Amino acid sequence: MSRKLWQIILTALSITALAVLVACGGGATEPAGETEEGETTTTTETEETGEEAVETEETDEGADEEEMDEAMEEGSIWVLLPDSASSARWETDDRRFFEEAFEAAGVEYNIVNAEGDASTQQTQAEQAITAGAEVILIVNLDSGSAASIIENARSAGVAVVDYDRLTIEGPGADIYVSFDNVRVGATMADTLVPLINEQEDPQVVLLNGGPTDNNATLFREGYFTASEPFFDDGSWTLVDDQFVPEWDNQQALVIFEQILTAADNNVSAVFAANDGLAGAVIAALENAGIDPASAGIPISGQDATVGGIQNILAGDQAMTVYKPIRAEAEAAAAAAIALLNGEDLEALTGGLTINNGTNDIPFLALDPVGVTADNVADTVIADGFRTWEEICVGDFAQYCPEDQGGTPTDTVEDASDVEGSIWVLLPDSASSARWETDDRRFFEEAFDAAGVEYNIVNAEGDASTQQTQAEQAITAGASVILMVNLDSGSGAAIIESARDAGVAVIDYDRLTVEGPGADVYVSFDNVRVGATMADVLVPLISEQEDPQVVLLNGGPTDNNATLFREGYFTASEPFFDDGSWTLVDDQFVPEWDNQQALVIFEQILTAADNNVSAVFAANDGLAGAVIAAFENAGIDPAEAGVPISGQDATVGGIQNILAGDQAMTVYKPIRDEAFAAANVAIALLRGEDITELTGGLTLNNGTSDVPFLALDPVGVTADNVAETVIADGFRTWDEICVGDFEQYCPEDR
Question: E strands along 498-636, which residues?
């Protein structure tokens, strides 16, 4: 087994404490996956369409070549994700963690998403088999279709990992990787039982999840088993025990209000199966004039949602169950790699099995973590799963540690008294994960805290779809449209239509350079982004005896790339003009494509006889291509002292910085940008002057001077990683310090 594979396995084992595995017990059937997140919003989402695949390149790592070869057995791993609609986790978390694990191991992989269509998932499985996959890692959409996938895979000699959801029909997968769902319920009981036993005459309700979801049954088994002795001996009274159809929070509210009415409000404790149901319980109690915190009513939850953590800090909820997705994904990746290499799985499972109704399936079971007000900081915050900034908004800021509250850019004023709505038009999911992973979440937080009505939609890369969404917003009575345009032509048409209808428009992150221009543009100062690169590189280059400098810019049709270049070229031009620096080459990379960047830079190196001593690379992806080209030419950038810039503070960029191969990256705090845009949208909704927000700054779009709210980026070097991207929760040491990069990380992290 390769050293890198062992690192992944050991990481999964250490994080999840597999040494204390416990069996689920009984003839468990299908755990249908993560519970509903349960946070009610007024947003609407468009489902992503099509299949998305990510494949890594195989790399040569010199002294580790033999070890790498072992991990890179012939064949590949295919991950079949279920959808984007049921939970953001699949694309936001699981995809990212699988990519990190497989890249660290150097294995070939593809990740696709069926977007809720079982027939699509079956087609993807067939494509995997045809493409020569050795392992399929599946989150099934239903047991029937998954059983068919497993049977076909078995016939083709392809191993299958059931991930998070057990396929309860057919022969069963080669291994099942998930949390111990009985233990999830028992973890709720660990906190609530002592609290209930302090009461004089406990009146207890069990509010369970969906009746058709086997996970809900397993959760209930966990907390009921712990509670049953107290019901049996009469020390507790079981007031009611109900399942909530489809985990629906609105139905939960109605059900619990009926329970309260029937019990004459005499309920003193509630086992709620997740944070959404807990929120419904809290709302029902408050509607009945009961403050759960003042009344001392312990309520459980699950999923460690932002709302759940907020309720815990406010004293309205006793606890939530945190299931570290990173640990689950890394454990599944380790299992998949072991299967790829034909290794025995018992070292991972400890011999534990679970019956799927037909066979005993090897079960790698992970333990969940109970979160209370006492350990929020040490669990979900420390892991980077949640941040104080997203929790400590609005009224909840008063319950947060004084030294952890949000910055001024993280706050919004209450606007619940204002009529009208705000529509956010996101561009896609493919060009960057940020739009769905970060921007959507931050807009939701900001608008929820302000109490305004809003909708967030995504055009998924289709300009005509975005125009249709804008028309829908106008027809629905939107007062403000906040748009990330897909191109300036369609963006200009949207702005013109909105103007005609009296709807204000915000250009967010991308300026529409045609037409009349938006009412305001909110983005980072992109010239300053390039200048921030120069702030770090210019002193380093000036120390060299005969600097030979390359400018490797972004896409030639992307105005941002031109602005980035303006920033670093303006700072460099005096040195080129006086001859103290030599400009070796100055090229744009079509569509910011990293593979094209690699070819371009290799050609530059060849033409320069490898005499390049510094590179302004416009983002971390291009920087990675530069580093690869140097290494292909037998040059170690760190040892040769070649400073290379970057942008976006990606995991790969931070890793290269810590390893000494990249000098810096530019970090653009997306939370700050989203909250700034939200404040502008709310000001426009109120009909207020926005000069106070923009400071009177404008930017010409080619036709008009557009008010510009410009944010400053942050330069990140090896010296301030901890104080910037880590401290902000934008990155975590866990995602950075994997594989060979662990040696460059702080020991006390």
Answer: 504-508, 520-524, 548-553, 582-588, 614-617
CA-based nearest residue to 513, from 528, 503, 501, 523? 523
**Residue carrying structure tokens 């059931």:** 162
CA triplet 640, 644, 648: central angle to 5 degrees? 150
Q: pLDDT for 404-417, tens place per residue?
A: 533 334 566 666 77
711/219 Cα distance (integer angstroms): 46
Q: What is the pLDDT of residues 96-145, one digit of tens each?
A: 889 999 998 899 999 999 988 899 999 999 999 999 999 999 998 888 89
**Strand partners of residue 582:** 548
- CB–CB of 348/289 below 8 Å? no
* HEC readout, 433-486: CHHHHHHHHHHHHHHHHHCCEEEEEECCCCHHHHHHHHHHHHHCCEEEEEECCC
How far is residue 273's CA from residue 216's CA, in Å, rounded to a whole number? 7
Give the integer Cα–Cα distance in Å for 53 and 588.
26
The C-alpha atoms of residue 301 and residue 319 are separated, in whole angstroms, by 6
Find out whether 722 and 746 touch, Cβ atoms under 8 Å.
yes
Alpha-helix residue ranges (DSSP H) falling in 578-688: 594-607, 620-632, 637-640, 651-659, 670-686
Instruction: Give me 724's structure tokens.
Output: 């910037």
What pTM did the predictor assign?
A: 0.47
255, 248 Cβ separation under 8 angstroms: no
| Adjacent-strand bridge partners of 742 | none
**For residue 423, which amino acid is it?**
W
d(CA 496, CA 504): 10
Within 633-716, residue ranges assigned H as helices are 637-640, 651-659, 670-686, 691-694
